[in-house]
Structure formats: C-alpha cells, structure tokens
Amino acid sequence: MKNLFLAPLLFMFMVNIFLPPLKAQMSGEVVYKRTWVEDDKFYFDTLRFNGPELLYIEKRQKRQWRTPEGYIIYIPYANRSRYIHQHSMEYIDQRYNDKKKQYELKTGEAPKYEWTLDNEYKTIGNYKVQKATASVTFVEGDTGTVIAWFTTDIPVSGGPYFTWGLPGLIIEMTIKNHIKGTYTMESITMKPVDTLKPKEGVWVQSGTGKDKGKLRDLLNKDGN
Questions:
Q1: What pTM, to 2 d.p., does this model score?
Q2: Residue 75 near residue 190, CB atoms below 8 Å
Q3: Would you say 53 and 218 are in contact if contact means Cβ atoms under 8 Å apart?
Q4: HEC secondary structure over the chain
Q5: What pLDDT, on a 0 to 100 scale, did the predictor assign at position 94?
Q6: Distance separating alpha carbons of residues 208 and 64, to the nearest angstrom
Q7: pLDDT: is 10 or 29 the higher one?
Q8: Confidence label for 139 from pLDDT (cuts 50, 70 and 90)
Q9: Cα dist from 210 to 44, 72, 220, whole Å
Q10: Dihedral angle over CA of 65, 67, 71, 76, nearest 10
C-alpha cells in the first residue's frame, strides 16, 4: 500500500522535472511621451497589452504653438483607442464623436509594417535596443518611414503610434515625413489588464445605400 501511495507522487515529481514550464502571457501597460522640437511641448499616450492583444489609447486636448523658425504646430484633440489581435488580425477603431457625444466603433484593416532589422544597436536607459525601419501607410492615409529602436528583453510586439510586429517592445521611435519629434517610453508596468477589446459605442461602417444601413443595423443589434 505504501508503494502504491508513493507512485503518483513520484510521477508528478518526474513531470515537473522533465516538462518545460509554461510561458506566462505578459500583460500590462506602457506610457509613451511624444516630444516635439521644443522639450516643453509634449503629450502622453498609453499602450496596453495582453499576449497578442494591443490597445493604443490617445487622449489629449488640442494645442497650437509657433516654432522659433515661424512654423505653426497644431495638435488636434484626440479621444481614440485602436485595438488589434495579432493572431486573428481583428482590428477595431474607437473614436469619440464630440458632436454626437458618443463613441463610434469601426472595423477595418490595421496598418501593416514590413520591418527591416538593421545591424545597429545602442543602449536606452537599462535596455539594449536594435534599430528597425519600415515604410507604412497609416489608417488615415498618411505615409512615412518609421525608425524604431526595440528591445527583445521585453517580448511585447507593440509600440507608439499603434506600431507592432517586431520581436520586442519599441522603446524609442521617430517618423520621417512628419514634424520632428520622438516617442520615448516613459514607463512600463507589468500587471493584469481588463478586457482590451473596445465595446462602448455605436458601430459605424463605410459603405453606401441599403448595404450600409443593413450592416450598421446588424452590428448594433442587441446593443453590440
């Protein structure tokens, strides 16, 4: 009887030794600081992550100022969140319609990044980072060249301005063809996060005529 009792314990001990530990799904949030030419002109965005899910949150008031060269820089008001599931490629854009005083939800195709990894490294804070570049057309139709510095020390495939697809978190990033400025990681917190997929709002969809109305009614059915 004693040997029969010890057998299951011995089996569990052997399993723990020879089976690799399960990799925990990383979750938390990153705060990015967007700095312009002048150091005192900046705002913050937030990236939340949970495994393959990303939610990039932009909330700021509009601002305007004139640079020493005489250029006027205008930052529009923003109350927007963009979501992607990097496995299923589900994409949701949630924006607040200030005229209608409600959030609006829209599906679509997320921007794709064809990254080129450069054999160039440096250190930012406590992280060794590698350079990567990509040409991209954003959801709004703008085009530019993204220059990102990412670290594989944090295996989160995300970054500022809703960038994604690298084998590590983007710590610093600039976009050519945009006004000079840099996104830098201000802080990162590893913690459980709530459901990332946006649900609050009314579904809207591009289209015309009856098809547009039918699709909108379908999306809004039962309060979804």
A1: 0.76
A2: no
A3: no
A4: CHHHHHHHHHHHHHHHHHCCCCCCCCEEEEEEEEECCCCCCEEEEEEEEECCEEEEEEEECCEEEECCCCCEEEECCEEEEEEEECCCCCEEEEEEECCCCEEEEEECCCCCCCCEEEEEEEEECCEEEEEEEEEEECCCCCEEEEEEEEECCCCCCECHHHCECCCCEEEEEEEECCCCCEEEEEEEEECCCCCCCCCCCEECCCCCHHHHHHHHHHHHHHHC
A5: 95
A6: 36
A7: 29
A8: low
A9: 41, 43, 15
A10: -30
Reported as a single tens digit per residue, the pLDDT across 161-212 is 889 999 999 999 998 766 667 899 999 999 999 889 999 999 997 544 344 4
Q: Residues 41, 61, 202, 140: is their CA dihedral positive or negative?
A: negative
Beta carbons within 10 angstroms of residue 98's beta carbon: 9
Using one digit for the tens of pLDDT, what is the confidence trace for 28-45? 999 999 887 655 678 899
Query: Which residues make beta-bridge pairs with 121?
Result: 130
**Radius of gyration (Cα) for the chain, nearest Å?**
22
Of 148, 178, 146, 174, nearest in space to 74 by CA: 178
The residues pairing with 154 across neighbouring beta strands, listed in sequence order, are none
Is the pLDDT assigned to residue 69 strictly greater than 90? no
Q: C-alpha distances in angstroms, 22 versus 19, 42, 163?
A: 9, 40, 28
β pairing state of 202-203 and 102-107: parallel
